[in-house]
Amino acid sequence: MRGYREADLRVEIEGARGVLEAAGIGCRYSGPAEGLTVEAQSALGWVVREATTNVLRHGDARSVAIRLAVTEHTATLVVENDGVPDRPAGSPGSGLAGLRERLSALGGTLEAGPAGGGLFRLTAEVPR
Prior knowledge:
Elements: H1 9-22, E1 26-30, H2 38-57, E2 63-70, E3 74-81, H3 94-104, E4 109-116, E5 119-127
Parallel strand pairs: 1-2
Antiparallel strand pairs: 2-3, 3-5, 4-5
Helix pairs in contact: 1-2, 2-3
């Protein structure tokens, strides 16, 4: 992944918590602290960063849940927030497209969209 700056997943999660809580948005994290390659940690760190930016810019979230699940071969990060408008405005921005490209370079995937009940879910999966 030449040309991309590195992001540290743990640092990004702590940063997300701080920024979201300062904005009055609760943030919960669950998942392991170890067991990912540097590349996987960096890619998922970027996902947390972009998801946090989107939460702050769009909708009216009161809470965010960040969940990391690691299996033998993959790491799956889910970022879910409430307060999503019933009809999202406009088309997805370039941030999500950039994340898809970044994850694809590692053999990963990104899915993002309304999850019903006023929730928005972003799911990223990368080889660990």
